[in-house]
Write a structure and sequence with these properties.
InterPro entries: G_patch_dom (IPR000467), mRNA_Cap_2O-Ribose_MeTrfase (IPR050851), RNA_MeTrfase_FtsJ_dom (IPR002877), RrmJ-type_MeTrfase (IPR025816), SAM-dependent_MTases_sf (IPR029063), WW_dom (IPR001202). This protein has 738 residues and is of the alpha+beta class. The chain has 19 helices and 27 strands. It has two domains: 52-441, Rossmann fold, CATH 3.40.50.12760; 457-727, 2-Layer Sandwich (D-amino Acid Aminotransferase, Chain A, domain 1). A seven-stranded mixed beta sheet has the order 4-3-2-5-6-8-7, with helices on both faces. A hairpin with a 5-residue loop joins β21 and β22 (644-645). α3 runs parallel beside α13, α4 packs across α13 and α7 (241-253) runs parallel beside α9. The radius of gyration is 34 Å and the shape is elongated. Residues 689-704 and 728-738 have low confidence and may be disordered.
Length: 738
């Protein structure tokens, strides 16, 4: 060491000829980040005096606390007519103490203010280290929002992806005809929807409404689900009443006027620099999302919506209206929502009957908010305070929820503050908690990877799983007077009107669709139509030129007509009965159809008739003048929606496998299955009666050839066979022969 005395050092004086050197020791560097040397920010030095170390131990298990059931009647038009209160626009939150203690409110606002002066990147790094659930992230979905929905879907007993009625019975099943309908509003880029479609696949259909631009749905980034099952509907600004009405009509038109099973709303926008006023600034967004729920959710359906602080009587009044309109309501903060933010979700279960007056009232409030924009006035109340506070159970829950949320938020903010000050602090259980949560929620721990591309031929062999390819080159047998005798009994057969050549169609995702005529020497050809199908889909189809109208106003469009389905979005359905496959095809078409896109070529399922009811087909045949036919009328078949096309024949399909056949019970007045080998009968579909590949026979409409059959020949044969089908013993009459 140097001898400071020899250098002229004297206690209490600095070095140098005139003692001008530094007297105090050099302090350790307190430099934070890359800001200028010597710059000190209040946020780093300010003490919050909050003990964050007594926070609960992180856990994957969560508890739900519901509001008590509402026992008051749903407000009607007369009651709500004088509820709306317009007053001076209010842009402060510090005095909103009706539903939260003053001390807690001021504490949480003070904690938030500390972060206003912190560098964003430093705060984010500290937040990442401080949050025990941070590593859950988005897994293989496009963002963290998807995992929030996965989290809440599990906590609420899958009430969104597997909704049940009040008796616990599933409302939609994969093998049944009804789709799970849902809507996703103000929720771009679409993480909520990606999760639902990943969970339900093609058994769900989603409708979305958001704004075009940076907050649009990013359907091309749905790596884990088929975005073809989701239909965005675009409006203008978020609060324009006409957009809400238009979206309501659109959803009702496409759900048989019933509405969706559930609505998800995750709206929000940047309030940078005004974080403490987020609740006030987003009040109309919150109202519009609640209004949308009352507009498009079906009776018994559910609603989940992101909220922020709920201190103002305006926000609490909106929650009160939901409390009146749904069977059960709760405020819930999932562990996937960062603990330091004010984000919570209002979860509503079971929409009641008779909410129309409340919906109309909220619609009028929205109009009033639009009228008062850019003025000093605002809607301050939607429900009078005396009405809210008159329901003591509701008020107590609201205060408890707000104060509990504030307490947790204060601790989380203090924890981040401590982690900013000390870069060595970290949460040790992040990886363990992540693994436990994914296991509990049923989410595979996989990386996010874009779907691999494939050529149609390779994908075809992958989907058919070793099935002999010769089956696909099978061609229909021409129906003549000789082959007609093989169609016995007629109850075993179904028929469809043909409009062109049969092809196989494979979907590789989006517009990557190819067709193949079944000949091994021919290649898969890119379909030159504007349509979209989910990947891993294999269908038997016709490309039919449909016509609407006659004369000069006649319009022609090419449509895909599905004859049969083999694989639907990765689900092999070939082992299902023909009738079941057609039902699944109808369901699939509903899921992928996009009525808001008239520029796309339609996809339809062939109308299937029982062979014994073939006369229904002939009723729908008529002579029409077709464009390009030189004014000569041509035979046309008119299908659904007044569309018609030139028929080229009939497909007759056997749907029952030997030795089973079908008969009609005169005593029970219904059809049954009869085993010709064992002489046994049953009303239930036997598994071994399902006809695998099907026999198809084709009847030309041209009667010039004497070997070909006329309408009268076929109908006469069917009538004879129908009568003979009554001869088999029914299940109650037969004896099972061993």
């Amino acid at each position: 060491m140097y001898n400071k005395a020899k250098m002229g050092f004297k206690e209490g004086e600095g070095l140098g000829k005139y003692s001008q050197g530094r007297k105090d020791i050099v302090e350790a560097s307190n430099q934070k980040g890359r800001r200028g040397l010597g710059l000190t920010l209040r946020g780093f030095d300010q003490e919050l005096n909050v003990d964050w170390r007594d926070e609960p131990e992180p856990s994957a298990c969560e508890q739900v606390s519901w509001f008590p059931e509402c026992t008051t009647e749903i407000p009607d038009t007369q009651e709500v007519s004088d509820w709306m209160v317009v007053g001076k626009r209010k842009m402060i939150i510090e005095d909103e103490t009706e539903f939260c203690g003053e001390e807690l409110l001021h504490s949480v606002l003070q904690c938030k203010s500390v972060f206003d002066v912190l560098d964003g990147e430093e705060m984010r790094r500290a937040r990442t280290r401080a949050n025990p659930y941070e590593m859950i992230r988005g897994v293989f979905f496009l963002n963290r929002a998807a995992m929030k929905m996965a989290n809440m879907d599990f906590v609420f007993d899958r009430m969104f992806t597997n909704p049940r009625d009040s008796c616990g019975k599933l409302l939609v099943k994969d093998r049944e005809a009804e789709l799970l309908y849902f809507a996703d509003v103000c929720a771009g880029p679409g993480g909520f929807s990606e999760y639902v479609l990943w969970r339900k696949k093609w058994h769900a259909k989603g409708f979305g409404m958001t704004l075009k631009g940076p907050n649009d749905f990013k359907l091309e980034d749905f790596y884990s689900a088929s975005s073809e099952l989701f239909e965005p509907y675009y409006g203008g600004m978020r609060d324009i009443p006409s957009n809400i009405s238009a979206f309501r009509n659109f959803v009702l038109d496409n759900t048989d006027r019933k509405g969706v099973h559930f609505l998800m709303a995750d709206g929000g926008f940047s309030v940078e620099g005004q974080e403490n006023l987020q609740e006030i600034l987003s009040k109309q967004l919150l109202l519009c999302q609640f209004l949308m729920a009352l507009s498009i959710v079906r009776t018994g359906g559910h609603f989940i919506c992101k909220t922020f602080d709920l201190f103002t009587p305006f926000s609490v009044g909106l929650i009160y209206l939901l409390y009146c309109c749904f069977e059960r309501v709760c405020l819930f903060k999932p562990i996937t929502s960062r603990p330091a933010n004010s984000e919570r979700y209002v979860v509503c279960k079971g929409l009641k009957v008779g909410i129309d007056d409340v919906r109309d009232y909220l619609f009028s409030v929205n109009i009033k908010l639009n009228q008062l924009r850019n003025t000093d006035s605002d809607v301050n109340l939607v429900v009078p305070l005396e009405v809210i506070k008159g329901d003591h159970e509701f008020t107590d829950y609201m205060i408890r929820s707000n104060e509990s949320h504030c307490s947790l938020q204060i601790k989380a903010l203090a924890k981040i503050h401590a982690f900013v000050q000390d870069a060595t602090l970290s949460e040790p259980r992040q990886a363990e908690i992540r693994k436990e949560c994914l296991r509990l929620w049923g989410i595979p721990d996989q990386a996010r990877v874009a779907p691999s591309s494939s050529d149609p031929k390779s994908k075809f062999f992958e989907l058919i799983q070793g099935t002999e390819i010769d089956i696909f080159s099978y061609k229909p047998t021409l129906l003549t007077s000789k082959t007609l005798e093989k169609i016995r009994p007629v109850l075993d057969y179904r028929c469809m009107v043909s409009g062109s050549e049969q092809k196989f169609l494979i979907g590789l995702g989006k517009s990557q669709i190819y067709t193949w005529d079944g000949r091994q020497s021919d290649r898969w050809v890119k379909l030159d139509l504007k349509t979209e199908l989910p990947r891993d889909t294999l269908l038997s189809v016709e490309i039919v030129h449909e016509l609407k109208g006659e004369g000069k106003a006649q319009r022609k469009i090419s449509a895909i007509h599905i004859l049969d389905v083999l694989v639907l979005n990765g689900s092999d359905v070939r082992e299902q009965h023909f009738n079941q496959r057609i039902q699944l095809a109808e369901k699939f078409v509903k899921a992928v159809s996009k009525p808001s896109r008239p520029d796309m070529n339609p996809i339809r399922v062939k109308e299937v008739y029982r062979l014994e009811e073939m006369e229904k087909i002939f009723v729908r045949l008529e002579m029409k003048i077709i464009k390009g036919s030189s004014g000569i009328p041509k035979l046309s078949y008119t299908g659904r929606d007044d569309r018609h096309f030139v028929p080229t024949g009939l497909y007759i399909v056997r749907t029952v496998n030997e030795p089973w056949t079908m008969g009609f019970s005169k005593s029970y007045k219904k059809k049954f299955f009869y085993n010709k080998k064992t002489k046994s009968s049953t009303f239930d579909l036997p598994a071994d009666s399902i006809w695998g590949d099907g026999i198809r026979v084709h009847d030309s409409q041209k009667p010039q050839d004497p070997d070909k059959l006329s309408k009268e020949d076929v109908l006469s044969f069917i009538q004879t066979q129908r009568l003979s089908a009554l001869g088999h013993p029914t299940p109650a009459e037969c004896v099972v022969v061993p």
